[in-house]
Design brief:
The protein has eleven helices and eleven strands. The chain is of the alpha/beta class. The strands form three sheets. Strands 8-7-6-9-10-11 form a six-stranded mixed β-sheet, with helices on both faces. The protein is elongated and about 75 Å long.
């Protein structure tokens, strides 16, 4: 059965109406939202008043803001009951025609935009007035003029005229980092995605991790917007060499090469391509710049990719080698003194401003 009203009461009793929010990991002064995903209407209530009396009113009377995503049967415009789940707030409803669409990248992105950004998405079977809000390609991407509150704290906004771009994050996962260092790198990457407002319409980010040749992995592609954070958080620590030039070759072959089906990886035609390399050491697979280029560097540099290098901490003090990663463009090199600085709000904002806005 689909006893949704009683599920609301359970949520109220176990996560909302608790003696101390800290006991369930909740934070004070942080908005509380409930996202209900269902393929059917409540089977334990035949009217709105009955739904409310059995659990709905408890949630609606609390500080929780409720969103409802109806898939399959629940998405039908003729079905009544889906609106009960949001206390008849139709702006917080999303109807999706089938469960397969819900689980797709597009479906995930639409739900995330509605429930996090209050931006109505495409409603594939809708009786509400919400319409698709996706924008056409333009030369710049829209960014907020105020600081954004994220799970990691407040991150300052980027330049208001940030260029539309597809960005590759290439993350060093070599053994010299250690587990704690790798956690700092993934924290940086997750915060970076939030700082640049990773989205389908503006900046799109793909992430690759590397260590020894053959260990390279695409963590997520350019259009994996709704799931990118979780994929980065669970990315494995590779714990070996720093074969950077061969990582460049891997990136070229999987994300850059003009012969690729770019739409299949979320790349966009006519959009600038940039790569941000984060490394704590110099390449172990190239003793000279010529060798670095021959093994992978030249493919990236000749492929029209604008490359930025972030060196931390060993790579930040090395006299040579870090510049190879940018084809000897010192303005595109950033040296950071520690991994904790890299993953801090200041570190994230500094890297984001350099790599998106070209601001030192």
């Amino acid at each position: 059965r689909t006893d949704t009203a009683r599920a609301f009461q359970f949520v109220f009793d176990n996560l909302i109406n608790v003696g101390s929010v800290n006991t369930v990991g909740r934070r004070t002064s942080v908005p509380l939202r409930l996202v209900v995903v269902t393929d059917g209407l409540p089977t334990d209530a035949s009217s709105k008043s009955q739904f409310d009396s059995r659990g709905g009113a408890a949630v609606f009377g609390s500080e929780a803001e409720v969103f409802a995503v109806g898939a399959s049967v629940a998405a039908s415009p003729s079905a009544t009951g889906l609106e009960w789940l949001t206390d008849r707030n139709t702006d917080n409803l999303l109807r999706i025609d089938e469960v397969g669409t819900l689980a797709s990248r597009t479906g995930v992105n639409e739900v995330a935009n509605l429930t996090l950004c209050n931006t109505p998405g495409i409603t594939t079977t809708s009786s509400t007035t919400s319409t698709s809000s996706t924008s056409s390609s333009t030369s710049t991407s829209s960014t907020s003029s105020t600081s954004a509150s994220t799970p990691f704290g407040t991150i300052a906004p980027l330049c208001p005229d940030a260029p539309m771009a597809d960005i590759i994050l290439l993350l060093d996962s070599s053994g010299s980092l250690g587990i704690a260092g790798w956690t700092s790198v993934t924290t940086f990457a997750r915060r970076y995605l939030q700082a640049v407002n990773n989205s389908l319409e503006g900046i799109r980010v793909a992430t690759v991790i590397f260590a020894a040749a053959g260990q390279e992995q695409v963590v997520h592609y350019f259009d994996d917007v709704g799931v990118a954070d979780g994929l980065i958080a669970s990315a494995p620590f590779l714990n070996s060499r720093t074969d950077t030039s061969q990582a460049y070759r891997f990136v070229f072959d999987t994300l850059v090469n003009a012969s690729l089906d770019r739409a299949s990886i979320g790349r966009r035609a006519g959009v600038e391509l940039r790569m941000v390399v984060v490394t704590d050491g110099l390449p172990t697979d190239a003793a000279t710049r010529d060798k670095f280029n021959s093994q992978g560097g030249a493919a990236i540099f000749d492929g029209g990719v604008d490359v930025f290098a972030v060196g931390v901490p060993v790579a930040s003090t090395a006299p040579a080698g870090l510049e190879w990663l940018t084809n000897m463009q010192p303005a595109s090199v950033l040296r950071v003194d520690s991994l904790s600085t890299l993953s801090s709000s200041v570190g994230v904002a500094t890297v984001a401003n350099l790599t998106v806005c070209n601001v030192d």
